[in-house]
Structure formats: C-alpha cells, structure tokens
C-alpha cells in the first residue's frame, strides 16, 4: 500500500528548493508590508524599516531554534548584485533632476568631504579608545580601525529613504540627504579598498597614498562615464523600437543593470554608474517610448525596489541572530557615540561653508535633520561581512549590527517627534498673523518667479550650453521623431481637459455640502468688520487651517519625490494643472491680441486655437 | 551662441551699472539671458516671451510678475527696463548701507523693494490695497476648494489685522508695518551669480 502511495504522490523538494525558498522570502516580505499598511497608525510611530527588521529577527530566531545553527547570513554578493541595484535605479530614475543639479555642489561637499571626515574621525577616535588598557582591545590596529571607520561612516540611501517618508521635509533638504547618501558610495568604496590594500601591504609609502587619491577620482568619474555610455546606448536603442513596443521597458532595465555590472567589473562605483545611466537616458527614452511602456517602467521599478528594500531589512534582522558576534560593549557603545558626534560636527562645519555661498541657507532645523538622519543600513552590513577573516572580525560585525539597529530603531523612531518638537518651539515664538502668512507666501511666489525670469539657477550657464548641445546634436541622433514634444502638448491638453471636468464637479460639491455652509454662517455672524474686538480663537484657527491646506505651495517646499506614488499623481502636479487652467484665460486673451501678427504661424492639428502658440510648454510634463 | 543683432555697448553697460548697482559680469550674464528670451530678436521682450518660461506658467502670480516688468501701457520692455526691475531683487550689501544719504535711493533698498511688492497688489495705483484687490491676489494664490465666502472672510481678517486708520484698505505704511517682523531683505533678494 505504501509503495502505491509513493508512486502517486512523490515529493521532490530538492528540485525546486532554491526558487521555492526565494519566492517564499519575497512572499513573506510582501505580506508583511500589507500587514503594516493595514494598521494605519503604525507607520506614523514606527518606521517601516524597523518593523521589517523586527520581522527578520523573529524569522531568524525561528530558524535558529529549529535548526540549532546560525541562520543564512545575507551573502554580500546577493546584496550587491541583486538587491541593491533596483533600489538605486529607482532612486536615480525618479530623482528630480532640477533640484539635484541646483544643489549638486552642496551634495558633493557633504558626500565626499563629509564622508571622509566621518571615516577618519571615527577611525582615529576608536583607535584612541583601543589604547585604553582596560577594554582589552589593544590588538586592533590603527589600520583596522580606519578600515572600520570607512565602512561605518557611509550613510545608507535605503534606510534614509524609508525614514524620510514619515517626516515631511522640504524638497531641498530631501535632495540633500538623499543625494549625499547615494553619492558617498564612491568615497566608501575607495576608502574601503584603500584600507584593504594597505592592510595587505607590508609598508605604506607616500606614493600609495597619492595613488589612492587618484583612484578616488577615477572611481567617480569612471562611474559617470560608464553610466553616460550606457545611457546613450539605451536612448539610441529605443529610437528603433516603434514596431516592437512590448519589449521597450526591458531595454531600460537591461542597460541600467549592465552599466552597474560593468562598473563593478572595473572596480568603479556601480551606484554612480547606474544613477548616471538612469538620469541621462530618462529624457530621451521617455520621448521615444509609448505611454504604456512608460507606465510599465515606472511600475516595475517601484515594485522591484520595494521588494528589494523589504528583503534587505528582513535579512538584516535574520542575520543578527547567530554566532557571528563578539559583544565587546565598550567598543560598541563608543562606536555609536562617535558616529553621532562626528556626523554632527561634520554637518555643522560643512553647513557653515555652504551657507556662505547661498542666500537660501540651510537652517538649524535642516542641519539637525541632516545630522540626525544619517542612518546606516545594509551597505555597512554587507561591507563588514566582506572583510577578510582576521581575529577581530566578529567584533566589527557586532559593532556594525548594533550601530545599524540603533540608527534605524532609535533615530528612525525619534526623528519625527524631535522634528515636530522643533517646529512647535518655532511656532510658539512667532505665530504669524493671517496677513503675515499671506504676504510671506506672496513674497515666496514672487521670488520664485523672478528667479525663473532671471534664469537664476546655480549652473544655468552649463544648463544652457547643454540644452544647446542637446538640441543641435543629441536630439537628432537619439530621438525618433524630431518634433516629438508636440504630441506631448496634445496629450497634456487632453489630460487637463479630462481632469478639469472632474475637478470642477468635485469643487462644486465641496462648496455646497451642508456642513461647510452652516459653518460659514456661524462664522460670519461672529466675524464682522464693525466689531474688531471679537478676535475669536476658533475663527483664527479655522482660517489658519484653511490657509495652510489651500495656499499653493512654492516650488521649494513641496517634495518632488515620493517612494510609493508615481510622479505626477501628487499635489504639485495637481496644483500646477489648476494654475495652468486658471491662467488659460489670460493666455488666451494675450494670444488673441497678437493673433493678427501671428497668422503666418502654422497650426498644430488637434489643438484648439488658444493653445496653438504654446508648443514651448510641451516639456512641461517633465517638470512634474 | 549664434549671432545677435544688438550687442551691449559699453556706455550702456556703464549707465546700467550706475543705475542698478549690478556688477559688470552680472549685467553681461543677464544680457545673455535677455537675448535668449528674446525670440523675435528685436532687442525688446513682449509678454509672450515671458510666458514662454515654463516655470512661470505654473506660478500663481505669473501674470502679475510679468506685468510688473512692463511700464505703464506699453507692450515691450527693453534691456534697461528689464534690469531696472531685476535690480529691486539685488541683495542689500553691507557697504551700501553706509553710503551717502544725499544720493538717490538705490533700487534695492528695503523701501523700494516693498514699494515694488505693493505695486503688484495695487493695480489701480491709488496707493491703497482695497478689499477687491486683496481678493484678486488671494484668489490667485489659493486652490479651487475655497469658496468665495471663505475667501472673503480671510480678506476681511487680513484687512482687519493690518488696518490702523480704519479706512478698510491697506495703505503703504500699514503694509510696511505688517512686514516689520519679516526679513524683507532675505525674502526679496536673489544672489545673482557673478
């Protein structure tokens, strides 16, 4: 009987083991994510990354207790080759390029100088600690400490992103911390490899140090070069995909991944390469591919990066359990303290220099967020596992694990309340009156407008040159049809008209709901010009609330990048559409006046007459 | 960057420098910006040239800002007028504060900056911001979700807070008083590149 059963139902786990387990992990990650988002309250108190690590800890504990050996440690190769690229690609592709290049100087300063400052500072101070006899750490040499410093100094984009979603920071700040965390990869890689080679060399000469500095520039610039190369290839390839639309998204992913792998092949910075590739190909690819491919790319990128992100944090939790650690608590505690101190010092000093060159200063609150938001994450973790086996490796692993857990849990959870606290104290000092608030917002819009007119962006000269080069040469080679932008204005017009109708209907509903009108009536009896003495607190708050939610945001304040929504679905795009529709009328008037002069201009099919002259607005969608 | 029909002459540059206080290189850079905006290549900008700037199209105050460049009743602005308006946004340098009081007030003084902003509100140029003018600006700055009544009460509140002589309108002195806690120099200055 048993043998008959064996013939009918046979179990062959070995056959499917690897894909099965991978799929199960991914399934676990995604289910965990659904779980968090179902509880609406959780993400506001505890950032998602913490919850994911927690899940990982539980899983690790389970595996450990079941198998009675250490659970699978996250293999560095898996991390660097499979898990990290999607996240960085998504970040680079959706990076709002205008604020990025506006602040590129500051970002590079923080990324390069800041990381080196942190690395050397932490390394040297830890070496000082090691000299103390009491801690039993004397065999940890200076080089090892510096090596450890270089890998623990790196601020991690994955962790930063996941926490910054919770706190709403303005665009400039977001781009600063985010850009810094992406670009410091180059510095980290160079320092890491530098110290690795120093440890293996019998003696270190000045020549070696100079070579290292040269290597740093090579890594960064080489990465950029490879990224640009693949970006151009990708743009060129999409020029010919008109007849096979279905595989268009594939090219984007293939070329980006190739650029990453090629850079890693030559020991250059893969992250810089993939970001450059994404940013350079974006403009041409989006003009060449179909609308549906466009949506597909966006969704797939978000999906992959989301999965990667979740998996990384879970694995981090899993790898914490086990026998890999040597818990030398003095060393660990001092590491945490030094990380915080050196980061704070670095930010203070660098911001001092930055503020000298800019009118829009980085405020105290911003500095605090930059310093406190320097979270360490999976990159440090993987790098520490890559260290060759030597006597004290487990010490470093333990220290890294604790630092990461500390930054993600403690800093991640407390950053939001602290930011709110700072805001509240600010608000208590000066509560702006309604008139002040309106006037201030008026000034902000005015300033933004004048800046746009005077062409004041930091690198306008280069941008202008690049635009010229682009329109003369690049567009002809890389774009399928040269007059592509015209079709995008038609698309924009259609989209606007469609949404306009819906918005108007909704706005009409809002005005006429019974609750709001009854509120108005009661408010109107309370507020009247004849009795200025009745400054009712509720009315004031009501008006303040109305203003804060409804005043149009200026460009700098609204964040342009969001993890979970596609660009173009958020507030700024809606706001811009509203403004465009409103000014539609005035634009139409001004064009009808000069209509007689422009009768020779050729008309575009599909556009109503008032939009004819506006082909220059064709690249407006890129602004969103 | 291609041939331009009119180049900036030296004496014109000197005059602009004296009038606005910009440096030589700033004026040259702004001139190249002026010419890149001037699609008709006739040495003046029309309203369409301004409206071609895409970011300005989605600025709520775009129309008012553009109008501020054009002198009364005209449709074209030349480079001098362009620079004169932009000069209001030059940051106030420290050494200028101690300049001679007898000379004409520089265009970027605090008072002139405020005057410029005031003129953006006050369309009929009667030196008062009436409730209607305030309502118009508010309507531009606010989304579609606010009804007219709500907007009206916000405008009333604004005037109530600012008005001191009881005429239900905001005069220039009252305007200045509202902004005394605001750092106008910073809010209305752009650091033009050298």
UniProtKB/TrEMBL annotation, chain A:
It is found in: Cell membrane. Keywords: Antiport, Cell membrane, Ion transport, Membrane, Sodium, Sodium transport, Transmembrane, Transmembrane helix, Transport. Its main location: membrane. Residues 27-419 form the Cation/H+ exchanger transmembrane domain. The chain crosses the membrane at residues 45-66, 78-95, 107-130, 142-163, 175-195, 216-237, 257-278, 299-322, 328-355, 367-388, 394-419. This is Sodium/hydrogen exchanger. It comes from the Eukaryota. Pfam families: Na_H_Exchanger, NEXCaM_BD. One of its GO terms (molecular function) is sodium:proton antiporter activity. Residues 513-601 form the Sodium/hydrogen exchanger regulatory region domain. GO terms for biological process: regulation of intracellular pH; sodium ion import across plasma membrane. It is a multi-pass membrane protein. GO terms for cellular component: plasma membrane.
From TrEMBL, chain B:
Its main location: membrane. GO terms for molecular function: calcium ion binding; calcium-dependent protein binding; sodium:proton antiporter activity. Gene3D superfamilies: EF-hand. The keyword Glycoprotein does not apply. It is found in: Cell membrane; Cytoplasm; Nucleus. The keyword Calcium applies. GO terms for cellular component: cytoplasm; membrane raft; nucleus; plasma membrane; transporter complex. It holds the Pfam family EF-hand_7. One of its GO terms (biological process) is negative regulation of protein import into nucleus. SMART domains: EFh. Belongs to the calcineurin regulatory subunit family. CHP subfamily. PANTHER family: EG:114D9.1 PROTEIN-RELATED. This is Calcineurin like EF-hand protein 1. It comes from Oryctolagus cuniculus (Rabbit).
